[in-house]
Amino acid sequence: MRYAAVLFDLFDTLVRFDRQRMPEIQINGKTVRSSAGMLHAILRTHAPHIELEACYEALSASWREAERLRALDHREVAAPVRFAHFFQTLGLDEAALPPGFGLSLIDAHRGALGRAAEFPAHHGPLLRRLAERYRLAVVSNFDYTPTALDILERAGVTDLFRTIVVSDEVGWRKPRRDIFDAALSRLGVRAEESLFVGDRADMDVLGAQQIGMDAAWINRDREKLPAGVAPPTYEIRDLGELAGILGVGSSI
What we know:
Layout: E1 5-8, E2 16-17, E3 24-27, E4 30-33, H1 36-43, H2 52-73, H3 79-89, H4 101-115, E5 117-118, H5 123-131, E6 135-140, H6 145-155, E7 163-166, H7 167-170, H8 177-187, E8 194-198, H9 201-210, E9 214-218, E10 234-236, H10 242-246
Helix pairs in contact: 1-2, 1-4, 2-3, 3-4, 4-6
C-alpha cells in the first residue's frame, strides 16, 4: 500500500454543513438561520434588556472579528475568545455573570451546529473499510473541539480515527504546518506516507503540499485552483471516489 495513513478535513469533507438545518428566526422582518434565538433565550435569564436583534448582530460581529484575526496569521480564535467579544459587543461584563454562563451559550451554539451537520450515508462504510488498512485521523479548522467530537459521535464513526485534531486545541489553523504536524506525530507516520483529504484548496491542499503530503481535493463545483496552489495528487467530486484510489472497493 502506498500510504500508511489517511487524514480528513471535517466540514464539507466528512460532513456537509446544511444551513437549512439551523434554527429559523425573524430579524428585522427577515427570516434568517442562526443559533441566535437559542442564545437569546439563555441570555435573557440574566440580561432581559437584550433584544433578539442585538443578540443576532453581536453573534455575527463576533464571527466577523474572529475571521479577521484568523486571516492575519492563521492563529485560531477559540470559542471562549469569540464569545468574550460577543459579550463586549452587547455591553455586558462576562465576569459579572454567573460562573459557566458563557459556556452555556457556547454549548447551545455547539448543539445547533451539530444538528446542521449532515453525514452522508455512504461515508460510514467507506471509513470502516479504510480503517482496516490505514491509520485514520481528522484535522479540522474549528474553534471548539467538543463540536467536532459531537458531530463524529452522532455519525457513529469516532472510534475509527486514531486521533482527532482541532485547531482550537493546537492554536493554529490549516494551512499552517503546526496542526498537520500534531496529527502526524500522534499517528506515528511521516508526511510522505500520508494522504490528506479536504475540500479547500487554499487550506487543505496547500497545507498538505507545504509539508510534503499528498492531497486529494474534493472539488464538487469544478473550481479553478487558487493562485499559488499546485495541482493536487488527486481531484475528486465526492468522498466515495477514494474507494477506488485507495483500493477498498466501491463505497456507494
